[in-house]
Amino acid sequence: MSDVPFQSAVEQSRALAAGEISSRELVELYLDRIATHNPALNAVVTLDPERARREAGEADAARAAGRDLGPLHGVPITVKDSFETAGMRTVCGRRDLKDYVPDQDAEAVRRLRSAGAVIMGKSNMPPGNQDVQADNPVFGPSSNPWDTTRTSGGSAGGGAVATAAGLTAFDFGSEIGGSTRIPSHFNGLYGHKSTWRLISLIGHVPGGPGTGRWTNPDMACGGAQVRDARDLVPILRATTGTADYDGGFSYRASFAVLRPSGRG
User: Fold this and answer.
1) Is 201 exposed, middle or buried, given 0-12, 13-18 or 19+ CB atoms closer than 10 A?
2) Candidates 13, 80, 123, 142; catalytic one
3) Domain span at residue 17?
4) 155 among known catalytic residues
5) Which of 13, 23, 152, 179 is catalytic?
6) In this predicted model, what pLDDT tens digit does every residue of 43-81 receive, in sequence order?
7) Residues 162-213: pLDDT tens digits?
8) Does the pTM exceed 0.85?
9) Of 13, 143, 152, 155, which one is the catalytic site residue?
10) Does residue 15 sit in helix, strand or coil?
11) Is 80 annotated as catalytic?
């Protein structure tokens, strides 16, 4: 099973649906890898293994009962530490938030959970998302898994490292000017910046906590870092759409499948 942690989320979803592996087994594989490799990489900065095991077990039970939780059913993931996670510390690389535990999920996190994703923990980043590396005074720097003397890139550097090193199926993050794409380039991944307001940033720090959690700064977007570009499809299916909290406009994602013409 040595290749399983490096499979795409799409491949893992197929294996889960076929009963070739359970969500609980997949979570244990990733938790073992995090325990072994994360001390040298410092990619995952907050972990909730018991909750991940419980939610993976619930995903397995739902599948056994014939219930479909959505496009990410039972897939274990990490989330950039700038997204509020209910009951799980959200620091955003800031000293003033080092003990902050939200009582509600960011909207994108809520949608990921609703789609069946199992959120194991949070990935490292610079204070307030404001750098092209992942280093902060609370957790320190993340190291590139291909060469630990080199930078992870940023701001979603911890998530890129975790994805490239096979510590998570993928990492869900955010960006304005390259925060997912730069570390994806540095770590050999696919990075995606979604269309502005395609994915809600309600509950994304530094807009939150408090009343600021409702803001969506210009050019700030949701995004993801994946080992296979096909994984972006279920991620977007899970997270896109307006929150409709102000009656404003929104975009709806559409997907085209390209097929060979059969000519030549």
Assistant:
1) buried
2) 80
3) 4-239
4) yes
5) 179
6) 999 999 999 999 999 999 999 999 999 999 999 999 999
7) 999 999 999 999 999 999 999 999 999 999 999 888 899 999 987 655 556 7
8) yes
9) 155
10) helix
11) yes
